[in-house]
Amino acid sequence: MLWRIDASPGKATTWTLSWFLFIAGIAGYFYASHNRHLENPDDKVIPTLNQLAEGLSNAFLKPDSEEAAPEDLANASLATKFFTSMLWTDTLASAKRFLWAMLLLIPAVFLGLHMGMFPVIGQLFLRFILFFDKIVALSVLPILFIAFGIDELSKVMLIVIGVTPTIILDTFNLTKSVPREQIVKGFTLGAHDFGVTYRIVMKQILPRVLNSIRLNLKAVMLFLFAGEMIASQDGLAFRIALLRRHMGMNVIIPYVLWVALLLFLVDLGMKVANKRLHPWFREA
Amino acid sequence: MSKLIELEDICVIYPVHGQAPKTVLAGLHLDIQRGEFIAVCGQTGCGKSTMLRLILGAEAPTSGRVLIEGEVLPRPDRNRGYVPQKYSLFPDKTVLDNITFGPEMEEFNILGRLTPRFFKRRTELRETAHALLQQMGLDPSDAHKYPDQLSGGMQQRVAIAQALIMRPKILLMDEAFSALDPTTRSGMQRLLRTLWAETGTTILFVTHNLNEALYLGTRVVVLGKQNSQGSSRVIADLSVPADARTDDGQLRRDVLDRLIHQVEQAGEPQLAEAYS
Ligand SMILES: Nc1ncnc2c1ncn2[C@@H]1O[C@H](COP(=O)(O)OP(=O)(O)OP(=O)(O)O)[C@@H](O)[C@H]1O
Ligand SMILES: [Mg+2]
């Protein structure tokens, strides 16, 4: 019964099944860690719970050790410690780049919308962007470094080059998929080109555009991390790359999980906002 | 009476990918007077919707001219209302906002929508919309629903209200009632007749149902294939006399026979058979 495609497992089964791999993964990890530490108590590759705790407190509660530590943090509150911690400063640095990239997606959405609505704009950009879309963003990284230097701009540009063509083309296709009747209807109701574009078409595609951006969050992060790992003085990926040299697995693992949590929260936030802003929208 | 719409020797040819172009309409002539209620019939694929789109200005004929009050108009405008069969409502707007959308768009630009005058006007428009909804037999509680929360019949009524609030000179309806059950449908037919009589709007109503056409229209136009060719033109054009129906609502046989005779004459015996 359980293996049939029309099986309907109960609550307990569902719960057990969906958490099973998490539990198994964690158990497997600590089993491996324990075994390695039996052979070599100083092993750093698979840190034990104690080592992880130490790494966590280092990351979450202490500032970057290479920087001059601010005076008497020892008896500051937990919140103060957290907001001056290495993890938090890294998060802020990455978040700034991330937000810049997200801001630059707004003009991309507008470009896609206008390409879909105005044939002349579409003809001007479509072929070019289709071509641009095929460029492997990481392959132009050296060019970016030469053109924009190795500071912030080239990292943001990497994200822009990597993600905006997809968003532009997605928005373009979504715009095109709005039934022609809706546009004609708009004209018969006294709307002109911009009225139809913004008040009818844009409103209709916006929830789908947001979903498309959500799907592309992974790509944004990917390019952000690539940029940070290759050339950066701060940021989450910079830290992970740096710690690799010290075999700092007990900090890398919390960092990886932290990044996953952040991305999950951003995605969830956008999903909830989308629902709130567009109560009419039913996901197909 | 003055001619409101003139279709002059219309020909519509669509390019078909990898095949010979398809001639949908050829040699189509039709004059429509102000205030007429034209019911358009014809087999599926004969170009009824295409003809509506031409009058609407959503499409230009390959050759020939579409004149509205003697002028060729390049695109749809607020004087020609449209109730398409599908996608007639804006899914992102509530019923009320769907209905008031037209006047709001027409009277206010983006900046104008920020002024107090706009909010005052919107209150008025919403009242008008409520009145229209009531006239359409919709419940006030439906006003704040989204289109996909309504049944097909309710959606169609909202779409008509949405078009009517503009007080268009011409109202084009494409199989507007075909998705409705018989009871709702006859209710809507009565309503449309009343609205037409009250507003004096010229209506073009596409339908597959000959009975509906003869009930609604003051004139029934049948589009059909010319002998052997694939393209359509007007094969029957009948003015429906005011007394076409007996008191108990039955259609007079001779009216129907005249129409069938015209269809037969045009060389469409199968269609004639289907109608009788
Ligand atoms: N954009 C287009 N490109 C190519 N062919 C088209 C296009 N629009 C319509 N046609 C063709 O034109 C013919 C007439 O279409 P139209 O939609 O006007 O028919 P109709 O009489 O409204 O049919 P129905 O009763 O099924 O709605 C059809 O054969 C259709 O395939
Ligand atoms: Mg049709």
Topology:
The complex is a heterodimer of chains A (284) and B (276).
Chain A: H1 11-39, H2 49-61, H3 78-83, H4 86-117, H5 119-134, H6 141-148, H7 152-176, H8 180-188, H9 193-215, H10 217-230, H11 236-245, H12 249-277
Chain B: E1 3-14, E2 22-33, E3 37-42, H1 48-56, E4 63-68, E5 80-83, H2 95-107, H3 116-135, H4 152-164, E6 170-174, H5 182-199, E7 202-206, H6 210-216, E8 219-225, E9 232-239, H7 253-265, H8 269-275
Parallel strand pairs in B: 3-7, 3-8, 5-6, 6-7
Antiparallel strand pairs in B: 1-2, 1-4, 8-9
Helix pairs in contact in B: 2-3, 2-4, 7-8
Overview of the molecule:
The complex is a heterodimer of chains A (284) and B (276). Chain A has 284 residues and is mainly alpha-helical. Chain A folds into 2 domains: 73 residues, no CATH class; 192 residues, MetI-like (MetI-like fold, Orthogonal Bundle). Helix content of chain A is 75%, strand content 0%. Chain A contains 12 helices and no strands. The mean pLDDT of chain A is 91. In chain B, strands 5-6-7-3-8-9 form a 6-stranded mixed β-sheet, with helices on both faces. A 3-stranded antiparallel β-sheet of chain B has the order 2-1-4, covered by helices on one side. In chain B, 36% of the residues lie in helices and 24% in strands. Chain B folds into 2 domains: 140 residues, Rossmann fold (3-Layer(aba) Sandwich), CATH 3.40.50; 78 residues, no CATH class. With 276 residues, chain B is of the alpha/beta class. Chain B is globular and about 60 Å long. At the A-B interface, helix 8 and helix 9 of A face strand 5 and helix 2 of B. Magnesium ion binds next to helix 1 of chain B. Adenosine-5'-triphosphate (ATP) binds next to strand 2 and helix 1 of chain B.
